[in-house]
Amino acid sequence: MLAKVFSAAVQGVDGLEVEIEVNSASGLMAIVIVGLPDTAVRESRDRVTTAVSNSLLHWPKGRTTINLAPADVRKEGPSFDLPIAIGLVGACEDTPLPDLSQYCIVGELALDGAVRPVKGALPIAMAARRQGRRVLLLPAANAPEAALIEGLTVYGMRTLGETVQFLRGEISLEPATHNARALLQKAAEQCLGEDFSDVRGQLQAKRAIEVAVSGGHNLLMLGPPGSGKSMLAKRIPSLMPPMQLEEAIETTKIHSTCGLLVGKQPAFVATRPFRAPHHSISDAGLLGGSANPTPGEVSLAHNGVLFLDELPEFKRPTLEVLRQPLEDGCVTISRAAGSLTFPAEFVLVAALNPCPCGFYGDRKRRCRCSLVQVQRYRQRISGPLLDRIDLHLEVPAVTYNEMSRAEPGESSASIRVRVLKARALQTVRLGGSGRCNGRMRPREIRQHCALGSHSAALLQSAVQSLNLSARAYDRILKVARTIADLEEAAQIEAPHLQEAISYRSLDREIWK
User: Fold this and answer.
1) This prediction's pTM
2) Nearest Cα to Cα of residue 241 among 305, 308, 328, 325
3) Sign of the C-alpha dihedral, residues 188, 194, 198, 203?
């Protein structure tokens, strides 16, 4: 007797439908799983048969063959336990099941028949809808996450016995619901916790951060220990525009693939992500990879902020892998089995000290480092990587008078108003694509960043004196365009260009 059950697997950050065929025949009792199963899938044979028995259900006692199609794709993880169990029950002549062609079923099974949560519920739900399945059965803990997808009825299963009874029509269940738009509205209205009003002084740093967020520009902060670099970075998401529904679903899909939403309520990323990996992170941890490529920190920061504190402490080869995502907004990982592309549209915020002890150039505290040590420390960051960072900002130590002021600084809400106005201008200018000035293409730079004769002469002088690259030239124009947008100016004027040039401090001789 043959039974067919449709399930799904996660490949990269996307779902892939898997058809599970269970055929029972006469012969010695054996269960054979084919279709490129990994160790976890092969071990499901013992988990599934024990769960079926403990659920007081029957499964074929002869030779049973389980095929996972397509057979040329590696099947990984325990998410096929529940559909395999349903297939075994359906292939038994004693307990037939109705037609399951409209169902997609995923879930891990415990030995007592309980259904445990799995990773990647959201991409699995998207794959089920794409393949025309109308109903998705998955663990109850994953149901709210999968219910984000419209046009698909989602039911949360608690046990194998409950799943079989539901498929037979013996019990009825309430479908899961998830109001994503309400969560986004609530996230946009509520206080984001970290606010710029907590920061004393650092007016120049606040201005540079406002420019960076307004145009989606990458930012590097250079300053002594305790000057507030990390404090400023943690408050950057509070200035960013609220997440749109498409952005939130795409970001949630990445976090779901990595299993970061299992057990969380709500299972939805409604605010801009802020990722701050430790400097000991590996290349695969930052970019993504391993034998079965999974997203790294650059993809988990998609539509948000990636903060790299103590930048020179990261291994240089690890930092160099950032070049592609900073330019392309995506990551392509190639392995023997094929290539996968992960989204990686983020704002890079990096912080570093001027030298190993942190006090090079400080007027009050003496630096203990030799010039050779300073040079070796700074050379850990390559020129090509610095070229890809739009704003270089020097963050000086805060004075006592600034720290002791009673009145708070400007709040994130008031700065955010200016950011939203500048973003709205960019949306109109770039054709409603949602891109910022930081993502302008060369043709768009020539079209929207035209300079007058005086401004062109000013930029020419800066390029020659600082020996700037062509990439740095383009980034100065992008930043100048953002500064003009903040002032609602139609053209880039000399003051806008001067401020943009001032944010290239690490291109000066002092750093080389």
Assistant:
1) 0.91
2) 305
3) negative
